[in-house]
Design a protein that fits this description.
3 helices, single chain, alpha+beta
């Protein structure tokens, strides 16, 4: 790991607020709270572009409870539920 990665704490994307930007470190589906199975959730997130090393930015939060969130992954904007975003570990 580089110093920049060490200096910034890792957190689930589901806890990030509007304006947050970082890099995806890994997908950790265990205990994400999703109704999907771990394998199905991981597959869907990868298909949407949530892959290790991708840059992410939280663009918008839903009005009711801040859910879903609009996230830019590289150059694509995606809406994702916070409970699914809990499986995306960023820093």
């Amino acid at each position: 790991m580089t110093e920049a990665n060490d200096a910034r704490p890792q957190l689930p994307l589901g806890l990030a607020k509007r304006g947050y930007s970082g890099v995806i470190h890994r997908i950790a589906t265990a205990d994400s709270g999703s109704a999907l199975s771990d394998i199905e959730l991981e597959s869907r997130l990868i298909e949407l572009g949530f892959v290790e090393g991708a840059r992410v930015e939280v663009l918008h939060e839903g009005i009711v409870g801040g859910d879903p969130i609009a996230v830019r992954v590289e150059n694509v904007t995606i809406a994702v539920r916070r409970r699914e975003a809990m499986a995306i570990i960023v820093a």
